[in-house]
Amino acid sequence: MEFDTIAAISTPLGEGAIAIVRISGTNAVAIANKIFRSPNEKDLLKQASHTIHYGHLVDPKTNEVVEEVMLSLMKGPKTFTREDVIEINCHGGLVSVNRVLQLILINGARIAEPGEFTKRAFLNGRIDLSQAEAVMDLIRAKTDKAMNVALGQMDGRLSRLINTLRQALLETLAQVEVNIDYPEYDDVEEMTLPLMIDKCTWVKEEIDKLLITSSQGKILREGLSTAIIGRPNVGKSSLLNSLIQENKAIVTDIAGTTRDIIEEYVNVRGVPLKLVDTAGIRETEDIVEKIGVEKSRQVLKEADLILLVLNNAEQLTEEDRRLFEAIEGMDCIIIINKTDLPTEINIDEVKQLAGDKRVVTTSLLQEEGVNELEEAIASLFFEGSIEASDLTYVSNARHISLLHLAKATVTDAIEAAHNEVPVDMIQIDVTRTWEILGEIVGDTVEESLIDQLFAQFCLGK
Question: What pTM was estimated for this model as a whole?
């Protein structure tokens, strides 16, 4: 498959030591050759693949030197896109990198669309769709564990398993075709139904294994939306600052200091948390604070995890009790803060209201109890199993949705086979399962979906 030649800046814009501009396509080397001048006047068209060259970029119309660069020359198919690729390392300033890009565009390339380099790698058969999506997961990874999951998917771990399942279904469909083509042989059907039940049951069990890891994988990929709630002045902002190890939120003894929500990402034992420090939830006449309280209530409804902070030095109030009611049925950890002060809170009542929810005591002023809190967060969602390096984690919402669909259709096929439905009817569900699994790796996916997926990528990738 042959495409036109594209170019884009592949490093973040801003001041830095080095920036990279990437060119890919049939004319990539020819375009670079028009604008590149080396001290010994190298002809890039005659240079070996996977070599790097020092020189200057020159405007061929004016002979003006645009930049001093290092140019990497890589000829297809042994490149990321399987096309000829040129990567130009220039100085990392806004002006310099944009001048380089403009020079390339003027001399025959066009600006790449978001994710177009990775899209070409997919369309040229270097990677499948699940591996392409893992590229973006790798870029967006916020913890080491999230990065390891993305690396495993990029390496084709999920693809290999999906293709193995599809092959098993394909063998089953071939057996069904034999049954349809040679109906005069009675023993064919006798062989087909047990085989179909056996193969489809195995496929269903493997899908179940993937779905078991999906909740953890999705957390690693997207993070947990975590709301820190409680009455004013119980230590919510101190908790945020302690977890991110930075004075992000203003801390005072004045109730109502936090008037808006503050968001920050933090890595807690490999669990990425999107921490939201909310305004203290209470009845107030202050207009600005009231808006913050309403925002806090909305955040509470949308959160995956609630950290409810209580004051050890005060008795429980009706506002505290209402917060316990608000978090009913949600994943929540109760934090009794300010244990450095004399205890006034009724611990037994807290445990009774908490039910089976974990209760942790802290003194954030003295940095006590934070390790126990982090352990509680990690164990609540992962229970230690995240360390299993041999598991194939499914983290992509699109993949998870397709696996649920595939499980439903293969289950229908198994039930139909047990009920001795004619094999040509069962074939419909088996074929549909094969097609759904193919959408994960991109074998049976529509072009419009491919365009939509790659549009979410950053420019230059």
Answer: 0.66
Q: Structural domain of residue 97, as residue ranges?
A: 6-128
- Provide CB contacts within 8 A for 114, sequence distance 6+: 454, 455, 456, 457, 458, 459, 461
Q: Give the best-scoring range by mean pLDDT among 53-67, 118-132, 140-154, 158-172.
A: 53-67
Smallest Cα–Cα separation from 336: which of 307, 379, 294?
Answer: 307
Q: What CATH code is carried by the domain that includes residue 313?
A: 3.40.50.300
Contact between residue 153 and residue 134 where contact means Cβ atoms under 8 Å apart: yes
Backbone angles phi, psi at 85, to 5 degrees: -130, 135
The bridge status of strand 65-74 relative to strand 51-58 is: antiparallel
Residues 18 and 89 in one domain: yes
Please tell me whether residues 275 and 183 are part of one structural domain: yes
Residues 154 and 57 in one domain: no
* The residue type at 16: G
For residue 195, what are the contacts with CB-CB under 8 A and spacing of at least 6?
172, 175
- Are residue 302 and residue 338 in the same domain, yes or no? yes
On whether residue 179 sits in a domain, the answer given is yes
Same-domain check for residues 351 and 289: yes
Whether cis (ω within 30° of 0) applies to the bond prior to 183 is no
**pLDDT tens-digit series, residues 387-437:** 444 456 677 778 889 999 999 999 999 999 898 888 778 889 999 999 999
Residue pLDDT, tens place only, 97-145: 999 999 999 999 999 998 899 889 988 988 888 888 888 777 777 666 7
**2-6 long-range contacts, CB within 8 A, separation 24+:** 2/26, 3/83, 3/120, 4/110, 5/31, 5/108, 5/109, 5/110, 6/109, 6/110, 6/111, 6/112, 6/113, 6/116, 6/117
Shared domain for 145 and 124, answered yes or no, is: no
Question: How many domains are there within the chain?
Answer: 2
pLDDT score, position 33: 96
Residue 374 sits in the same domain as residue 233:
yes
261 and 151 share one domain:
yes
What's the rounded Cα separation, in Å, for the pair 418 and 412?
10
- Is the pLDDT higher at 301 or at 439? 439
Residue 457 placed within a domain: no
Distances (CA, A) of 390 to 70, 135, 155, 295: 40, 20, 13, 42
Q: Output the domain CATH number for residue 107.
A: 3.30.1360.120
Q: What is the pLDDT of residues 4-29, one digit of tens each?
A: 999 999 998 888 889 999 999 999 99
